[in-house]
Specification:
By secondary structure, the protein is α/β, with parallel strands linked by helices. The protein contains 7 helices and 19 strands. A 6-stranded mixed beta sheet has the order 13-12-11-1-14-15, sandwiched between helices. Strands 4-10-9-6-7 form a 5-stranded mixed beta sheet. Strand 18 and strand 19 form a beta hairpin. Helix 2 runs parallel beside helix 3 and helix 2 packs parallel to helix 7. The chain is globular and about 60 Å long. This is Glycosyltransferase 2-like domain-containing protein. It comes from Guillardia theta (strain CCMP2712).
Length: 428
C-alpha cells in the first residue's frame, strides 16, 4: 500500500471552473509609472516616477512614499505623485525597483505597508540600445524555440485502489498564517482524494510561530517546528536546509515507501525503489565553478542515479507581459492583475504566490521572514483568485505552456507541438 506525499513551499492548490466574480475593493494604492516592467534603459541616469490613487484626506498621515532600488531606500517623501532621478547608472546591471505606500523610520525600516508596486529593468549601453533599435526597425526578434515536452494530462476522478491511503501534504510556512488557511480551503475543495496536511513551521518570531501553529491546528494539520539552531542569514540556504530536514527527518522516516512532491521549483519524487535517497539534499552547492541556488546539491543525486527518469513540469514561470503568457489568465482576472504580482501556475493546478517570505525585499535580507505583508494588493488578488475558483465563479482554460530559461527578451510563448501522450507520460 502506497502513500502519496506532497510538499509545498508557499504554494496554493487550485482547479478552476465557472463564471464571473466581484471586483477587488478600491484602496489607496501606489503604482510605478516609469520605467515599465522589463524596459531596457540606456546607461547614464534612471528616472523613477510614481502615481497614487484612492488616497483620502483622512488617510493616516504617517504614511509615506518609500522608493527602494535593489534593496536600498533611495527616496522617502510625503504621500503624493512624484519622481526621483538616479545618476551614473552603469550598463550591464538589472534593477529591481519597489515603491511602497507605508511608514518608514531609519531604525525600524518599512512597516504598515498599505500598497506597493515593483518593476525590473535592465541598464544597457548606448551601443546596445542602437543595435536593439535597428533590430526592431527590421522586425527581428530574439531566439524563440520551445523544446518538446510531455503534455499534461489532468486528473478528473479520485483513485480507485482499494484501501487507498490519504495523500500526505507537507507545506512550509515562516511568516504567513493566513496562507495556511487559504491552502487548506483550496485543498479541501479540489483534492480528489482524502489528504493529511503537515505544516512545517520555520517562523523566527515567537508570536508568528504561535499564529502559524494556531492556524495549523485549526484546520486539523499536524504541526512541526524546525530546529532553533538553523542559520537564517541566507534565504537560499535556509530554504534548502529546512526542506532537507523535513525530507530526511520526517518524510523518509514516516513515508519512505511513498510518492513525494517537493516544492523546490516543483520537484516530484517517487520514493518507491528510488536509489540514493541519502543524497536528497536541497541546500545550495557550487557545481564546477558556478554557484547554484536552492536544491543545486541535487546534482549529486542525479549524477549517482543515471537511470532515474526525469521529465519537466508544465509551468508558466512568472506571469507578466514580457514572458508573453498573460493570455493564460481569465479576462476577469487579467483586468485586476498587475505585472508586479508575478504569480506562477504549475501543472494547471498550483498557484505560486512568489516571495511570500519577503526574501526579495531589502538589501541584506533584513525583511526575510517578516510577518509584514509588503504586497497587500497581490495578497488581495491571490485570495480573490483562489476563493473565486473555490466558489466556481472563475474559469481557467486549458493551456500548454512551458517556460524556458532565459530573459524577458527571449521568453517562450504557447507551444503547439507535444510528444505523443503515450510516451512516458506517467514517468517522474
Amino acid at each position: 500500500m502506497h502513500v502519496w506525499l506532497i510538499l509545498f513551499m508557499m504554494s496554493i492548490t487550485m482547479s478552476l471552473t465557472g463564471g464571473v466574480s466581484d471586483i477587488l475593493s478600491d484602496i489607496a494604492s501606489i503604482q510605478i509609472s516609469r520605467p515599465k516592467q522589463g524596459e531596457l534603459i540606456e546607461e547614464g541616469s534612471l528616472m523613477v516616477e510614481w502615481k497614487l490613487k484612492g488616497l483620502q484626506e483622512d488617510t493616516d498621515q504617517g504614511l509615506q512614499v518609500v522608493i527602494m532600488v535593489n534593496g536600498l531606500v533611495v527616496h522617502v517623501s510625503r504621500p503624493e505623485d512624484g519622481r526621483v532621478s538616479m545618476q551614473d547608472v552603469r550598463a550591464g546591471i538589472f534593477l529591481h525597483v519597489h515603491a511602497f505606500l507605508a511608514k518608514y523610520e531609519e531604525e525600524e525600516g518599512i512597516t504598515n505597508v498599505s500598497s506597493s508596486s515593483s518593476i525590473e529593468c535592465k541598464i544597457v549601453s548606448k551601443e546596445a540600445m542602437e543595435r536593439l533599435s535597428n533590430a526592431q526597425a527590421h522586425g527581428q526578434r530574439g531566439n524563440v524555440g520551445p523544446s518538446m515536452y510531455t503534455p499534461y494530462i489532468p486528473a478528473n476522478k479520485s483513485g480507485e485502489q482499494p484501501g487507498r491511503e490519504p495523500v500526505i501534504i507537507f507545506t512550509f510556512h515562516c511568516n504567513r498564517p493566513d496562507l495556511v488557511l487559504l491552502q487548506h480551503t483550496a485543498l479541501s475543495h479540489f483534492m480528489l482524494d482524502e489528504f493529511k496536511l503537515i505544516v512545517i513551521n520555520d517562523a523566527q518570531a515567537h508570536d508568528t510561530r504561535k499564529e502559524i501553529e494556531r492556524a495549523s491546528l485549526s484546520v486539523g494539520a499536524d504541526h512541526f517546528i524546525t530546529p532553533d539552531y538553523f542559520d537564517h542569514s541566507d534565504p537560499s540556504y535556509i530554504v534548502g536546509k529546512v526542506v532537507t530536514w523535513a525530507v530526511q527527518e520526517i518524510a523518509l522516516i514516516k513515508y519512505n515507501d511513498s510518492v513525494m512532491y517537493l516544492w523546490v521549483g516543483l520537484l516530484f519524487l517517487d520514493l518507491r525503489d528510488l536509489p540514493n535517497k541519502n543524497l536528497l539534499n536541497m541546500i545550495p552547492a557550487v557545481v564546477g565553478d558556478v554557484g547554484g541556488d536552492t536544491a543545486s546539491s541535487l546534482h549529486l543525486f542525479l549524477d549517482a542515479s543515471p537511470n532515474v527518469k526525469v521529465r519537466r513540469a508544465l509551468h508558466t514561470s512568472h506571469i507578466h507581459e514580457d514572458f508573453n503568457n498573460k493570455y493564460i489568465l481569465p479576462k476577469q482576472a487579467l483586468d485586476k492583475y498587475q505585472d508586479s504580482f508575478r504569480i506562477e501556475i504549475y501543472e494547471r493546478s498550483f498557484l505560486h504566490y512568489g516571495s511570500a517570505s519577503n526574501w526579495k525585499i531589502g538589501r541584506s535580507f533584513e525583511y526575510f521572514n517578516s510577518a509584514e505583508d509588503f504586497l497587500p494588493s497581490k495578497t488581495k488578488f491571490v485570495f480573490w483568485f483562489v476563493q473565486s475558483a473555490v466558489n466556481g465563479s472563475l474559469k481557467l482554460d486549458d493551456f500548454d505552456f512551458v517556460y524556458e530559461h532565459g530573459t524577458w527578451e527571449n521568453a517562450i510563448g504557447p507551444i503547439s507541438e507535444a510528444l505523443p501522450q503515450e510516451q512516458d507520460r506517467s514517468e517522474l
